[in-house]
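User: I'll paste a sequence; please echo it back and then give the predicted structure.

Assistant: Echoing your sequence first, then the prediction.
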Amino acid sequence: MTDDPRLAAARYRAARSGAEGTEEETDASPEGSQVARAYSAADRAAVVETAIQQAIRRGEFDDLPGAGKPIPGLGETHDPDWWIRRKIETEQLTGLGPPALMLRVENAELDAKLDELSREDEVRDALEDFNRRVIEARRQLLGGPPVVTPTRQVEDEVAAWRGRRDARATAATAAETDAAPRRRRPWWRRPRG
């Protein structure tokens, strides 16, 4: 006898199915039929292939989106998570991804986020929170892309925020004075001439 457990298991199954076959021939229930058990993987593959070929002949695969076109982005670089990246892009999901990528996106949008704030202490808190998360992401050794996002100098960013705020206020007052309607003098107070 061999020591191969797979061979021993196959002999056991063959012996068991042979012993059960005599009992099942008298059993009329469909669950115990020998035909259902004899349906092998090759038979299943043949049935699936036949169904696919029939569907092709009927034209069920014609006019599918992207038919005859190469899959976009396939073969450019080896990325095992290409499907996740494509799903995030097509669904425009935010808040998902490794911290390094999320911090890069947040860094690009940080000035616009700061401009929405109205008080200086809120701006300082937002900048300190951003810097804390950048430093924390640099310390983690979880893998993924490296964190190349720089921290922001709080005082410099607050000064830039003030400058942008003052420029917006100046532009708003200039727009208001230009848009203000001029009052016409009554006809009796108009200069003659």
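The mean pLDDT is 80. The first helix runs from residue 5 to 26.
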